[in-house]
Amino acid sequence: MGKIIWITGGGSGIGEACALAYNNPENTIILSGRKKEPLEQVASQLSNALVLPLDVTNENDITEKVKVVEEKFGRID
Known about the structure:
Layout: E1 4-8, H1 13-22, E2 28-32, H2 36-43, E3 49-51, H3 59-73
Parallel strand pairs: 1-2, 2-3
């Protein structure tokens, strides 16, 4: 059983490198960041990814997105 991996800042730099390092068909990688386009570019290189734009400085946005992930996957590893 694969892991549900949520990476913030997943559109570039260390976040992108982490996403690529965890890329495995069994894992689901959730990519978050403020800009959707870079997240989509990284997601296109992954076996199983979900793009979920997020502003980590906005508490309401965080709460909303956590609910989305928990409803869809039931957990975050």
